[in-house]
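Hi X.,

You mentioned you wanted examples for the new student's onboarding notes, showing what a folding record looks like when two proteins sit in one file. Here is a clean example. The first protein comes first, with its sequence line followed by its structure tokens.
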Amino acid sequence: MMTRKIKWMLYWVVGFMSLSWCGCTPAKQINIGIYDWETQAIWTPERKEYLAACEIKKLYIKCLETDGNEFIYTQINGSLPTAMAIVPVIRLNSDYFLQCKEPMAIQASRLFQEIVKFQHRYQLPAIAEIQVDFDYTANNREIYFSLLKSLKLVSKDKISITMNLEKLKEKQYLPPVDGAMLMLYDFGGDALGVPAIFDESRLFSYREALKNYPMPLHFAVATFSRTTLVRNHEAITTLQIDAKILRDDARVVFSGNNRYEVISSFDMAGVRLQQGDILVGDEANKATIEKSLQFIESATQQENIEIVFFSLSNKMMQKFAATGLLDALSGLK
């Protein structure tokens, strides 16, 4: 039963894109990937069955995070799937270039060796692409681009990066990479500093900038949930708590606009919540995925489209397998 629902989810994405582009020549080629951003990942047979049922073509998996000095390695229990391309992702923390002062060639060589170790440790098939995740700014853009060039030289692999929507406006500063993963989520913060996973009006404001962006792009579409803790009118941390948990918890009271007030102190997700704290529950759902796909359809001229769900987790599999998101294609065949 789960497998049928999973296939329905896949059918909906492919069917939606097929309907949207049915009048285009040549036809768009749609591939689906998925991100695993967990620091500790348990690869059960059920997880691999989920990916197979969804016909996932590419798995992006974070292999390490580093601030330039300390390395936090992803720990994987079980074997990774071998029937799809696997792209290891290096996450550089925001202060990486403040901490690491070594020449670019040495930094690139060290990062590449970590990729090789990861490949051997988990017996991955040949790696054709490496992705770097770093939210660069005008202050560190030049040094970051230099690192990317060095990583390309030492690895001789395809290099891609993650990129936020605002970078679409910086066509004069094209990253020296083979492609970028455009993140269609995370839209700054409100007056309290609470970020939004999805904002339709702000997303579509980038449509013209995307239309003529001179670099191949993949598209990361949110499938995750999170909760922001607001204390004394200030957002202080993000908790990996599903909004459904908040709705079912009697220790918080819904106060409107995705906000829940803590009515008595208690511990949740390793954090001590205090009476009067506000929890802002935010989640991706069928509607936000539909709008993301509409944005891609309306803005890109690419013939080959890669849509990547962010991110893989047990909660994501349960939520989106149960919704039957992709049942539209069954009626189109």
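Then the second protein repeats the pattern, sequence line and then tokens:
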Amino acid sequence: MAGRVLSFSQYLGGSDNVKVIEMLPEHQKTYTYDFDLDITDYAFTANYSTIVIDELTYNINTGEPNFATSNVIGYLGSASTTIDPSTYVTVVSAPAGTVKFTIPQNRYTGWIFPDARTNVVMTIVEFTWTIRFLPTPDVVDSHRWAIIERYTADVVAGDPTDASNTVTFVDITGA
């Protein structure tokens, strides 16, 4: 490989605000955030990108994914897709600081290997909140999910990096 390959942790930029989960592409999940303060001046955005990692192993004792030797080899579709906040972000109570964020379904609709351990499809979803402190600069923070997309009979079993896939694979390895 040509030295341009990012390890999984380099791609994420650290793991402080990242949660790894596994989902079927057609599923969605809602999370409730409790900021425990007035969020009237907060703005919320979200986006995702779907990447392919070369290999994935699991800890034999805990069953947790192990990315120690995983590299990002490319992405699928657009480099980034915006999630509509009017559909997927609900401010339940601004004075109480409660917000619901839904990770949308159908994030990726292309091919997936059943029980993939190589060429694993992973969608990185980022939920961002911006605190507006006029006249001082805004404060921006975010939370990310690394979603291991799992095979279901609703998708085609196959290599997501194959040129025939309905979603274009962009190789970033320079190979």
